[in-house]
């Protein structure tokens, strides 16, 4: 059995490679999230580390947050089981880090997995890697900053479409749209990611914090139009699914009041939706389908 946990290895080049391991898809279980916090803290403290690469073991980055946790919350009603990932880990520890972090993404980066990658300062991906935020299909919204970073990296219309459909795109399309910085053959992914991280550290490549970007966001009046059309569509196609309108509200908050304000609203709404009947029903369906396929 592959070991479940988070590993940190520092190379002679001064790059710390942080690797998530939780087969088969490196789901972000509570111990993995705690391990990430610990390893990032260590990498930032160590004087022999100039830059960091985040990756997943076994040819997969991460399939997202461990859905078993939602089931436990539904059984107990205890929201304290949810760790504070969005602000503590993704914003404060990763995005605002004093050393650059590059995501080396392969296989899949879905849900919380993609949200972790978007919190890094660059994203490199192997060919045909799946990238997506499928949270709305579970009755919730992205909860690790996805509602704020995806529109800033992809532009508003495409980000809304990706979240509402819950369907992934491939890394090649991600590169065209600006979600991915470079598509790199699988065998070279780590090597190129390490070099990229060092180039950011040396200021030879831009050090970008996705949450603070506004270059892809439309002017406010146009953004409101796009959101209004999306709301009308959601009323027709998802009228009994409150997570669709909630997601658009949270996106709008970030466009009007800035990314950080959006992240705080996202967290609050995410917590409310986790306990909703819709989420309980859809998570139950997810586990039932999984049991049937076995």
Write up this protein.
It holds the Pfam family ECH_1. Keywords: Isomerase, Lyase, Multifunctional enzyme. One of its GO terms (molecular function) is lyase activity. One of its GO terms (cellular component) is peroxisome. Belongs to the enoyl-CoA hydratase/isomerase family. With 294 residues, the chain is an alpha/beta fold. The strands form two sheets. Strands 1-2-3-4-6-9 form a six-stranded mixed beta sheet, sandwiched between helices. It contains twelve helices and nine strands. The longest helix has 18 residues. The protein is globular. The chain has a single domain, classed as 2-enoyl-CoA Hydratase, Chain A, domain 1 (Alpha-Beta Complex), CATH 3.90.226.
List the helices and strands and how they pair.
Elements: E1 5-10, E2 15-21, H1 30-45, E3 51-56, H2 68-76, H3 85-95, E4 101-105, E5 108-110, H4 112-118, E6 122-125, E7 130-132, H5 146-154, H6 156-165, E8 169-170, H7 171-177, E9 182-183, H8 189-201, H9 220-237, H10 242-257, H11 259-274, H12 277-293
Helix pairs in contact: 1-3, 4-5, 5-6, 6-9, 9-10, 10-11
GO biological process, one term: fatty acid beta-oxidation
Family: Belongs to the enoyl-CoA hydratase/isomerase family.
Pfam families: ECH_1 (PF00378)
